[in-house]
Amino acid sequence: MNAPELLLTPREMRKADASVIRSGTPGVTLMQNAGAAVADAAREMVSPGARIVVLAGPGQNGGDGIVAATRLREQGYRVSLGLLGKREAFSGDAALVAREWPSDVVAVDGANLAPAELVIDALFGGGLSREIEGAARAAIDRINMSGGPVLAVDLPSGIDGETGAVRGIAVRAARTVTFAARKPGHYLLPGRTFCGDVTVADIGVGSSDLQASGGRTYVNAPALWREAIPRPGPSSHKYERGHVLVASGGATRTGAARLAARAALRIGAGVVTVASPPEALGVNAAQLTAIMLRGCDGPEGLHAILADERLNALVVGPALGVTAVTRAMVAVAAQARRRLVLDADALTSFEGLASELHQGFRSAPTVITPHDGEFTRLFKGHPDILDPSSKVERARRAAAYLSAVAVLKGADTVIAAPDGRAAINANGTPYLGTAGSGDVLCGIIAGLMAQHLPAFEAAAAAVWIHAEAGAAFGAGLISEDLPELIPEVLQGLLGA
Ligand SMILES: NC(=O)C1=CN([C@@H]2O[C@H](COP(=O)(O)OP(=O)(O)OC[C@H]3O[C@@H](n4cnc5c(N)ncnc54)[C@H](O)[C@@H]3O)[C@@H](O)[C@H]2O)[C@H](O)CC1
Ligand SMILES: [K+]
């Protein structure tokens, strides 16, 4: 089975590099390997002997670019090298390789991009540390205006490798060659949209060096959780596959709960029940078949229903209303030692009140599924959670604060666990941005938790399955379609 793909921030990458160097490989060998991989990629993008412009910045990213330039020149390409700084100003390994460049250099602003078949962008990589201005900014502007293909070294210059942010301006690349491991900035938005195709070159950083980096951020893909997805055995009983309870809103707000319930059933929960306010029983009853229905009059009603020990996973939030009653429902659900998914109104009802969900809030597995707006409202007054520029870090801090898995939704959904693991989702589709889509997602999470998946694996698997279903359908998708698309995705995963 494939191992989960670890993503390293530039800081973690430096630790991995240091580990390789400690074991005896000189840093310049890593740089030679990196530059050679860039040259290999360049050759795939141009015709033999083509004109190539390499623009190199002042750090080690520039060093990789100079190695690539040297290789390509040796291989018969007409290469010109533009430098952001002075040739003598390089330090470290870049200074060593800069001495080997056998020809002239020009300043970046003197490099003529027009006749080039390819521009190689080696201005900045993992060491980008501030907004881009002046000559570097003008160079990036010219690269983007040139209209030709760009091959980025490690990261498109201007993209922050940790956060995916554009630091003032960024190169739009057709292809990016990165080294040893992808970086979060290749997946997080907007960075992802600047990278083009991203390939990872092996430059001699081993898996033990990657581990030495301390990185705990992964690409959200089946390798991370496939083994945990349950397969019913020949003698399994429906209650062994869990019993999900979904709290419904009032008479005019019942659809969200039914979407979540249907998704929980489709993902394999043995039994699913909608807990409905008395006035909404009629409308719910008219539209439920395999899903069971029980009357539930507010927090006391929920408390009474939870006497049934077989109910092992709860969904609280969708369309419940932003009220003190919803807060009371959450309190009852939180006190019950059941797996719990909190979404939408359950989170917004705690606007600025996250501290009520802190410290001993839960001992049973819990998942929260806010989008950005809900996240900001919930953690109002918590700059330590809201301020980090990395979405991964924000989700991680929220997870640690609440002792719950945090699913921070968006086109680059991040799933983070209280123990520090995090995953960035990459199979999303814009078609998922449709009313009720989030309700389906929390039903899938609860359905997987009911089947005993740990909260992090359940949330990560659910996000991926939900996106895969949406992408399979494409244009015209509505949320009612999503639960019906789950079987095909599940069968693809389980091979049955
Ligand atoms: N295993 C690997 O991944 C290897 C990676 N290599 C390459 O090294 C770079 C990282 O090198 P580093 O010197 O740390 O950083 P940069 O080259 O990205 O830039 C640092 C350089 O730029 C200056 N600077 C930073 N931000 C700005 C700005 N906004 N404006 C102007 N100047 C800026 C800073 O002061 C430094 O001078 C990595 O990406 C790989 O490409 C190794 O070659 C091999 C192993
Ligand atoms: K670059």
Automatic annotation (TrEMBL):
Q: What is its EC number?
A: 4.2.1.136, 5.1.99.6
| Entry binding sites for (6S)-NADPHX | 60-64, 125-131, 154, 256, 371, 439
- What cofactor is this protein dependent on? Mg(2+); K(+)
Alphabetically, which GO biological process terms does the record hold?
A: metabolite repair; nicotinamide nucleotide metabolic process
Keyword check for Lyase, yes or no.
yes
List UniProt keywords, sorted A-Z. Answer: ATP-binding, Isomerase, Lyase, Metal-binding, Multifunctional enzyme, NAD, NADP, Nucleotide-binding, Potassium
For the ligand (K(+)), the binding residues are N61, D121, S157
Question: Can you quote the record's cofactor note?
Answer: Binds 1 potassium ion per subunit.
> PROSITE patterns, per this entry?
YJEF_C_3, YJEF_N
HAMAP family assigned to the protein according to its UniProt record, in alphabetical order: NADHX_dehydratase, NADHX_epimerase
Protein name per the record: Bifunctional NAD(P)H-hydrate repair enzyme
Q: In which organism is this protein found? A: Microvirga brassicacearum
